[in-house]
Amino acid sequence: MSDAGQVTASAAEVYDEFFLPALFAAWTPRVVAAATLQPGQRVVDVACGTGVLAMEAAFATSPGGHIVGVDLNPGMLAVAKRKAPEIDWLEAPAESLPFEAETFDAAISQFGLMFFEDKLAAIAEMWRVIRPGGRLAIAVWDSLENTPGYSAITSLLARLFGDDVAALLQSPYSLGDPDALRALIARAGVTDPEVQRMPGEARFPSIRAWMHSDVRGWTLANELDDEQYERLVAEAEVELSRFVTADGSVRFAHPALIATAQKS
């Protein structure tokens, strides 16, 4: 995986506390449904992060299911292990999964593919470890043009700190073209992939909470010093005010693409 998706142990805690409820948790039932998980199945969650999707998969495959979460980031895995010690957590690259072929009934991945160093290899590995009849389900964020809050903040970051910093926050949205995503997955050897765009919403308690999440817990972790961070918050309070609701919380459209395929 590329460094853009990696965070420190402290950032992993921020990610788990702030980003899971704000962006990620609402998608886990959708990815599990797309994978049509059933009780007793074996499932691998690739780029599992702090474990929210793997835990949803464990619920869906109970009783008798077996879930393995794989991630390259030890900080993320440490949080996942504390939350769900009953799940097997492994540190490994998505491009070289440490499993025999046709080991799992499903391979799932939520908002990690954008950060993989070799996306084709990672998709091919997920497909390799699925048994015939099994399912692949991969979620990625939609494009920036369909995500107004992050489109606005990347413009703000570019103005304040330059294009290189802004690019770090653009990377999660790099696979937001449905046709391009479908073609990428097919090039990896996956048979007849389907891609569906699904609506979603980002929710943060406040502008400051939103900036804290991005700067301390996601792709901008450790990129801005304290003075730069406070400058960003002050500017964001003005420039991003259109996303603030009457109660002071932040909401904006945050759609995603879910790709699926069934192995013959």
Shape, principal axes of CA atoms:
globular
CATH superfamily: Vaccinia Virus protein VP39
Rg over CA atoms: 18 Å
Q: Please list the strands of the largest sheet in the order they lie side by side.
A: 3-2-1-4-5-9-6
Count of extended strands? 9
Tally the structural domains. Answer: 1
Note the total helix count. Answer: 10
Helix content: 40-55%
Specify the structural class.
alpha/beta
Largest sheet: 7 strands, mixed
Brief descriptors of the model:
single chain, seven-stranded mixed β-sheet, Rossmann fold, 264 residues
Explain briefly what this protein structure is:
With 264 residues, the protein is an alpha/beta fold.
Word description of this protein:
The chain is α/β, with parallel strands linked by helices and 264 residues long. It has a single domain, classed as Rossmann fold (3-Layer(aba) Sandwich). It has helices at 9-24, 28-34, 52-60, 74-83, 119-128, 148-161, 163-170, 178-187, 207-217, 226-239, and strands at residues 42-46, 66-71, 88-91, 104-110, 130-141, 194-198, 201-204, 250-253, 256-262. The chain has a 7-stranded mixed beta sheet, with helices on both faces. The chain has a two-stranded antiparallel sheet with strand order 7-8. The protein starts with 8 loop residues before the first helix and ends with a strand. The model is unreliable at 1-9 (pLDDT under 50).
